[in-house]
Design brief:
about 0% strand; mainly alpha; elongated; 6 helices
Length: about 140
């Protein structure tokens, strides 16, 4: 006489973990889209060339006015602190402008946004121009 075991149900713990991983992949993909849109917004604001129209105190440069306006607006709209907003803007700019492979990895869900922040922070100041193939052979 043989006993057949009933079909086993998926372990709820494993199912929950798999769902968290799938959600994180979706979050990473959306984060890549967000990075592109943040950079688009910064570029559009730059095209508009905002100026300091205040009448008191020192006059801010156009670059300073752009930065403060972008950070303030994004912080308000996304319910972030200005510090976290600055990290978002700086990371987005670094990924879009200097680290396209990292941005592609985020878009593919292979790298989390948090990892991309660390990569962007540590890549700041590094020369990201490609090395000539003839130099790589040495």
């Amino acid at each position: 006489m043989t006993f057949e075991s009933p079909p086993s149900e998926p372990d709820p713990y494993v199912v929950a973990l798999d769902e968290v991983a799938a959600l994180d992949t979706q979050i990473a993909r959306l984060s890549a889209v967000r990075a592109r849109r943040v950079t688009d917004a910064a570029r559009e604001l730059h095209r508009q060339a905002p100026v300091d129209t205040s009448t008191a105190g020192p006059v801010w440069s156009t670059a300073r006015v752009e930065r403060v306006e972008l950070l303030t607006e994004l912080a308000l709209l996304t319910r972030r602190t200005e510090y976290r907003t600055a990290v978002l803007v700086d990371t987005s700019t670094a990924l879009v402008d200097r680290l396209p492979a990292t941005l592609a990895a985020v878009a593919a869900g292979a790298v989390s946004w948090e990892h991309a922040e660390v990569i962007a922070k540590h890549a700041d100041g590094l020369d990201t121009t490609p090395v000539c193939r003839c130099l790589r052979r040495r």
